Fold:
Amino acid sequence: MSKDIIKALGELEKEKGISPDVVIEAIRAALESGYKKNFSKANNFSIEIDENSGDYKLYADKTVVELVEDAQQEISVEDARQINYKFELGDIVKIEIQPKKDFGRIAAQTARQVILQKIREAERDSIFNEFEGRESDLIDGIVQRVNRGNIYIDMGKIEGVITQTEQIPGEEFTQGDRLKAVILEVKNSGKGANILLSRTHPNLIKRLFELEVPEIHDGVLEIHSISREAGSRTKIAIHSNDPNVDPVGSCVGNKGIRVKTIIDEINGEKIDIVVYDKDPAIFIANSLGPAKIISVTADEKEKAAVTVVPDNQLSLAIGKEGQNARLAAKLTGWKIDIISESQYVERKNKANLESAQNVEEE
Structure:
């Protein structure tokens, strides 16, 4: 090795966070392996590296014995004590070996290989550490390529992937397009960090609202819950911590600019902004918008509610293929039974009739 390599080790520690001790130890092990493979089948040798100068020395490690039977492995007690009078039987004596001419070239190559390997490992670990624990964070990246339905996103130091199942139905991207996504999962594979991204997760809506609505970022407004069917419709429940701040108006923005920016980002997906209320009946009524609600009867023990709507609002409350009711149930966490006003009157009349009959029978 040389002082240039020692200098490189210092730069590794400074720029990549790799301890010189780690690299020195790796080089030592690699040199020992290289020496054994190319010059000697013996196992009793070691290499010491001067971390200041970069110089190395090769030693044969011989056991002190009374009678030498294997000169390659052993040294007599008399010869050992000529080196140091303190040696006793069983001690290990390090005897410097003058390495063969080609070993210097092998040493330099090995050092370079080890340093390059450590750099790659450190960069992989650094990237993984940077993204570990960042699940649900919003990223803004550029489409690097599209392959077999998967979208690969340039995130700077690393490439993230959006699989087909995490893409909004109907949207298409080409190389160079810019998009936003949330980190779904960070894995540490043998080749480094593997970043899985999502465009369908409800957290994408949450992060976009935090980005576009300062009142949410500042804590004046809070996102209570989100229910989403990506590519079609989302409901988001907002609570205001300040009675003077309108949650819906703040999220919509002047002339609808805030919510329009979010809708444009998610390929035109519809967004219903719902006012959260601690009263379950009010919250459920709000969640079924844009339908008008006559009444809500909530059973907190069962977390089930019966909602009455005008006859001409029943299909609107339920939504196409039940979507509005389904999203409202997910948003509130309640089981919601939606009936028309005429159905409610019919049920009520039937219940009154049954009650009257029971009284007569008694």
Residues 13 and 19 are 5 Å apart (CA to CA). The two ends are 106 Å apart (CA to CA). The chain has a mean pLDDT of 86.
